[in-house]
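S.,

Sequence below, as promised.
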Amino acid sequence: MGKPEARLKGIDRTQMYWGDVDLESLIGADHRARAIWELISQQPVDLFLEKNKSVSGRAGAERTDPRLLISVWVYGFTLGIGSARELERRLEQEPGLRWLSGDGRINHHTLSDFRVDHGAALDALFARVLAVMSQAGLVKLEQLTVDGTKIQAQASGASFRREPTLEERLQQAETLLEQLRQETGDDALRSQRQAARLRAAREQVRRMQDGLEQLQQIRQRKPAAEQGQARVSLSEPDARIMKTGQGGYAPCYNVQVVTDAANKIVLDVEATQQASDQQQLEPALERMAALGAGAPQVIVDGGYVNANSIAQATQKGVELIGPAQNREQEQARRKRQSLAAAGIAAEFGPQAFRILENGVALQCPAGQRLPRISQTADYNQYRAPASACGACAERARCCPKSGARSVKIAQPNPLVEQFRERMQQPEYEQIYRLRGAVAEFPHAWWKDKFNLRKFHVRGLAKAQIEVKWAALAYNIQQWFRLSWLPRLNPA
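The prediction came back faster than expected:
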């Protein structure tokens, strides 16, 4: 016997309502709400119904059709609505939303839960919509761009605290949770209010525990002298302080976007906690390869160009296109920045250290030996014993913050040289000029048209789902503009 058919509410757009409202006349034949419904209504929604309990032949209320909820959210994004409560209110008055819902009502709890509860189903729907666009000739996979944009988290900067405060708050939350458990007793006898207080207390404990785990991850990325200053948000431990496009700093996620250059269609989107783009190219290429969507050329800005990313792109058969930087000038700039950040005097830069034993060690200006501690394709790294630096008269100018001097010596890299030579050719310079118009177009659309400058949800996992909704709405908007409208109104 097969699985019982889900029992879903019907949508009746043909009936007349009090006040002589004809729903079909609310919007024109070329309205984008019709295009969204046409596209979404043709997609399978089995994954959105995996936990459905409302089926034919059994008692219970009908469930809102996932196709309607998807269409309402997609259309809501195109209106710049990201709040479930605002979407509920607009369902009563906005013509496109009224037409989509058949002038029905959808509770904001239903809308809010649906937005974040179906990550895997949303990924599958996103891929199906991309397939539709590919069949329409909108996706070429000849040139891709990879670019990042910072979107603010819900957390405020004032919510960031150090470890002692986190431990204190965790202890308080655990004490409160135990008190509530003793007060409420048997689960069956709990009132709705008591159950809500228990859920809130459990969530507070979970968030503080998550905060302590996130704090350890943050510490691992900091120098030893700065680990005690590590902070994490009490309200959203996943968030990280990042430099924004406006020049300030705020809790954010760095959203990585892969865009097809032919028609500026988003192929992949990923929210990350890393402020820098330096390590993001390889994961993006791996995700695209897993989807079977490789491309011969990938265009990026200077934040992605380094020896490792060039090597990874070459290994995957990808021709990386990026800015041609003068090696000597770039090295000198990075050296100045690195020395200034560490408080090291210019005369104690790497040029002051003499290479010994064919690169096995260095000798510092004070005569101390720095053994090599690691070796990569990019550089050799050397570090002096802390005991030697601690007694050195030049410590204040050579290693004032770390207590033990560390030096990196760059290694010549033929792949990097090939990349620089290639990017000095006029045809590649011309290709690179495409980057801004393609890569930054989806970012601008989300922030200016969708008003997604700040996430409406908390946590990395939910932020990832929300930005995938934004990418889906953006792609459908492009399909509407480039495929549906021309088909409806042929020249």
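The longest strand covers residues 249-260.

Coffee later?
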